[in-house]
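Dear colleagues,

As part of the handover before I leave the project, I'm documenting each prediction I ran so the next person doesn't have to rerun anything. This entry is a single chain, and its sequence is reproduced below.
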Amino acid sequence: MSTVLKNADGSFRMFSKGASEILLKKCCKILTASGEPKLFRPRDREDMVKKVIEPMASEGLRTICLAYRDFPAPEGEPDWENENDILTSLTCVCVVGIEDPVRPEVPDAIKKCQRAGITVRMVTGDNINTARAIATKCGILHPGDDFLCLEGKEFNRRIRNEKGEIEQERIDKIWPKLRVLARSSPTDKHTLVKGIIDSTVAEQRQVVAVTGDGTNDGPALKKADVGFAM
């Protein structure tokens, strides 16, 4: 998300926030402790991912990057609709870790589902390390179990053939062990729901229930046997 402010001298400043590893790729400078911008190279970014983002994410924190960009007055007003041109050459201000704590009643609710024979899966836009940590706290993942945690990109790579078409056989190799699908899009969620419903690997057809809290979850909720809009 970006917000643009117009300054008195006719220049513009754009403030942006977003998933840290994605927004950092668009940064070419970073503010020092004294507030001076310095060069931010790809190797500095890799360093930040290893030393700052991954440790926070593995504790279940959602990491967000805050950055800005100045547009000088002489250059005139940019075309704000052209995101590729606008959202580049940013200066990173900081990366913050936000805790979205698991409510105390959630692990028990998941245990009840599991005792009833329901397999609980987490499909989220979160970073995979954050998702894995939260899924472990919830009881979706149990250390020592044979399970899969995938990012949307890897999920798509595994389920599509050379032509980019989704194949049911490929989905059938993944969904039984899949417990966490991270950095996923609404399309990935719909694909997973359809793949499980259409599967014939189990003796009985799987009954799928889906929860969702945003309008983009609509297609998956509609496709599921039971859809809970939250």
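The mean pLDDT is 93. The radius of gyration is 21 Å.

All the best with the project,
I.
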